[in-house]
Amino acid sequence: MTNRLEMVLRNDLSELERLAAAVEEFIERNDLPPDLSFKFNLCFDELITNTVSYGYGDAGPHEIRVRMEAGGTELRAEVEDDADAFDPFAEAPPPDLTSDVDDRRVGGLGVFLVQKTMDHASYRREGGRNLILLSKSIG
Hints:
By secondary structure, the chain is α+β, with helices and mostly antiparallel strands. It is 35% helix and 29% strand.
């Protein structure tokens, strides 16, 4: 059993497919509940899409690192990038959950889903890089 996964992605949305396949393989290889694959891929998709779409002030190449580790009763992940500083959990607008879908303003729902899907989701800025930490109980 290899309880760690580390990938370096280009700042290109096409990389999400490669990441999703690696996460699914990691979950299977470690005999973890299959729903964890869906949950983490949902969160990675949201967070990385936002980073690639809005986080960089240039069109140049950048790397996004994703790490996962299964340990004890918890699956942990980190998403690290060199995009502009942005704490999605403090700065993303709160979603409008009461209006009709057609009347809602865009933004905030994906970050809300990340927070509701994970047991823990946090952000910190370290060494000029964004670091998002996620964890979910394996049980």
